[in-house]
């Protein structure tokens, strides 16, 4: 473990006092001896050894602080220590006495002189050379002895001139231990600051944005790897140079907030956001974060293709929502009331409960039903892309922008409704812009300066606790209350168990052909207790998965009993899936030896692949790389199609 603290004593008397205390300290510390200029090489040496803080006398601190940045803690020397040294000098050597002070006179000099009635004069010296000259002057003028710190004491001894050093005798061990405790706090704070700096550097270095910071003089201090890649410059080439070296000042004003500004850097266009950095109300620099416009456009295109968010209508009505439980009936009744207002609605509920079904039904029940319904998954888009999608961009905003610009989703939803799904995932910056739209009913496209009025009913949905996010500073309080005017809580499936069987029948009819529907319905009815006894953490979505899996196993030879066994196995698998795959690995309990465990793993994999291929045994055999006979045996061992005829 590195030694964090070093004592530097300017004279032997203090060195001996510190040596007596060292064994009682909880950690090992260094002890060196040196005063003023002699202490400088000591600090250079111990800094290389990892020392964080120096403890020394006030005289050393006043000198060394002008030379080094390392924290310096002074051992307090009280007025009583000075009085004690003067009295001792008077008794031993007589009067008058010369009191030496480094750089500045002792502010209590006249009080000390009156209290102890000693004839003395104060000598203030600036460095060792000046101190030696003042010492010779005092000796020449007949002063009996010197009273001083360590530097003058050492010189006096070399000149054969009597001297009494001022050491912290009146406070003693407590003064040294107090200085040590203070030094430990400073060392801890310094280490924490360094750790925080390392974390910040890692964040900046591994950010997907180009990041540049400048100081108050607009000099570049940080230039991360993405900035190097985008701007085709090396950090060591630009750090220490003014921001004008990269971009002219008239394009980006220093220390002024700017957002979404398009700038040209050589042959590239970048979207820049810049904010000033404040320290106690004073601007100490600025931070620039930017993306390459071409990359934003490329990402936007990919996400659009992946999400197919071009459907501008709602297909579900309240009649399509299956449920007859009291709690669910009350939820639908409440949602219908909300449909006849224009206030914002916040729909909350666990994943898979059907929040979007309620959003679409509210729209179709409202006076806006003849107009657009636009849904956007806020979690699927980066902040920059989400902003572009929501608010659109103007013509010429960046390279590749469509002629005439592009309407945002708020404009497309004009006079209709917009669903902001996963609203809790949007960034604070987008939250502020969304708040403006809700307050002003106006949007401004990226790269434009015109406000476009919009008439949109906003419905948002989330499975997060937004109020908790508000308390943690992750979500704007003012936006939360704008969105939460009307709140609809969609209950999970486990709280409305009487709805499970009707839902299962509905899903069955929409996923299975007519030949096996009646058998499956009979099976579901017979095993109703299994459904109602399960917790359904995935809600309706998980129930739909079960129905699809069960449909695969239904064939002319199936029975209610065999299908019931499949239901039990599927529910067991569901329970296991919630416990497995932590950190990318399946959690397997080896309770029956390696052979049995491997058989269970093989059966599980075969079952999953069988379901995925919808029972196509030819493809399954090819996928597994085995023959039909071997496949039949393994399906039989896995409990799948146990009654099928052997090929």
Helix coverage percent: 40-55%
Largest sheet: 5 strands, antiparallel
Q: Which stretches are poorly predicted, pLDDT < 50 over at least 5 residues?
A: 580-587, 642-647
Tell me the strand order in the biggest sheet. 10-9-13-12-11
Alpha-beta classification: alpha/beta
Describe the oligomeric state of these chains in a short phrase. Answer: single chain
Number of strands: 20
Average pLDDT: 83
Number of helices: 26
What percentage of the residues does DSSP assign to strands (E)? 15-25%
- The radius of gyration over CA amounts to 39 Å
What does this structure look like?
This protein has 647 residues and is an alpha/beta fold. 46% of the residues lie in helices and 16% in strands. The chain has 26 helices and 20 strands. Strands 10-9-13-12-11 form a 5-stranded antiparallel sheet. Strand 12 and strand 13 (282-292) form a beta hairpin. Helix 12 (326-339) packs across helix 13 (355-365), helix 19 (500-511) crosses helix 22 and helix 22 (539-553) packs across helix 23. Residues 580-587 and 642-647 have low confidence and may be disordered.
Supply database-style keywords.
single chain; 647 residues; alpha/beta; 5-stranded parallel β-sheet; 20 strands
């Amino acid at each position: 473990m590195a030694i964090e603290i070093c004592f530097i004593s300017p004279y032997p008397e203090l060195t001996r006092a510190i040596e007596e205390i060292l064994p009682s300290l909880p950690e090992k510390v260094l002890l060196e001896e040196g005063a003023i200029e002699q202490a400088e090489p000591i600090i250079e040496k111990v800094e290389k050894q990892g020392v964080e803080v120096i403890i020394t006398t006030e005289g050393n601190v006043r000198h060394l602080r002008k030379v080094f940045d390392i924290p310096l803690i002074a051992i307090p020397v009280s007025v009583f220590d000075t009085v004690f040294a003067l009295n001792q000098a008077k008794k031993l050597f007589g009067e008058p006495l010369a009191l030496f002070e480094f750089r500045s006179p002792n502010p209590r000099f006249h009080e000390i002189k009156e209290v102890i009635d000693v004839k003395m004069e104060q000598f203030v010296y600036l460095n060792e050379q000046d101190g030696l000259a003042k010492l010779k002057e005092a000796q020449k003028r007949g002063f009996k002895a010197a009273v001083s710190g360590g530097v003058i004491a050492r010189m006096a001894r070399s000149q054969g001139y009597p001297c009494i050093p001022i050491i912290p005798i009146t406070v003693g061990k407590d003064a040294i231990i107090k200085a040590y405790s203070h030094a430990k706090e400073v060392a801890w704070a310094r280490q924490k600051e360094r750790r925080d700096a390392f974390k910040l550097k890692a964040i900046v270095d591994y950010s997907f944005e180009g990041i540049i910071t400048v100081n108050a003089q607009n000099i570049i201090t940080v230039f991360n790897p993405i900035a190097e890649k985008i701007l085709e410059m090396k950090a060591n080439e630009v750090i220490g140079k003014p921001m004008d070296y990269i971009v002219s000042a008239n394009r980006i004003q220093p220390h002024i907030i700017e957002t979404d500004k398009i700038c040209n850097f050589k042959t590239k266009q970048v979207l820049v956001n810049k904010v000033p950095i404040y320290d106690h109300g004073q601007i100490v620099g600025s931070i620039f974060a930017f993306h390459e416009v071409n990359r934003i456009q490329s990402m936007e295109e990919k996400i659009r293709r992946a999400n197919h968010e071009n459907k501008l209508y709602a297909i579900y009505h309240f009649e399509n929502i299956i449920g007859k439980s009291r709690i669910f009936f009350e939820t639908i009744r409440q949602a219908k009331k909300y449909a006849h207002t224009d206030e914002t609605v916040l729909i909350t509920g666990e994943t898979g409960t059907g929040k979007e079904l309620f959003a679409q039904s509210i729209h179709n029940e409202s006076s806006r039903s003849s107009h657009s319904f636009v849904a956007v998954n806020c979690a699927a888009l980066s902040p920059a892309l989400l902003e572009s999608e929501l608010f659109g961009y103007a013509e010429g905003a960046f390279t590749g922008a469509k002629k005439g610009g592009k309407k945002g989703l708020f404009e497309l939803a004009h006079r209709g409704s917009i669903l902001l799904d996963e609203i809790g995932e949007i960034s604070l910056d987008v939250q502020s812009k969304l708040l403006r739209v809700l307050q002003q009913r106006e949007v401004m496209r990226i790269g434009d300066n015109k406000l476009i009025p919009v008439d949109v009913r906003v419905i948002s949905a989330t499975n997060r606790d937004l109020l908790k996010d508000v308390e943690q500073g992750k979500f704007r309080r003012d936006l939360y209350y704008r969105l939460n005017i009307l709140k609809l809580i969609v209950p999970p499936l486990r709280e409305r168990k009487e709805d499970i069987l009707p839902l299962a029948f509905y899903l069955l009819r929409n996923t299975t052909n007519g030949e096996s529907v009646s058998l499956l319905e009979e099976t579901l009815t017979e095993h109703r207790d299994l459904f109602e006894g399960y917790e359904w953490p995935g809600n309706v979505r998980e129930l739909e998965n079960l129905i699809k899996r069960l449909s695969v196993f239904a064939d002319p030879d199936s029975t209610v009993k065999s299908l019931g066994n499949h239901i039990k196995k599927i529910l067991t698998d569901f329970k296991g899936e919630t416990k497995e795959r932590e950190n990318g690995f399946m959690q397997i309990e080896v309770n029956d030896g390696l052979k049995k465990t491997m058989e269970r793993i093989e059966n599980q994999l075969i079952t999953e692949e069988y379901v995925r291929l919808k029972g196509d045994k030819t493809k399954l055999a090819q996928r597994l790389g085995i023959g039909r006979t071997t496949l039949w045996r393994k399906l039989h061992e896995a409990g799948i199609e146990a009654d099928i005829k052997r090929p």
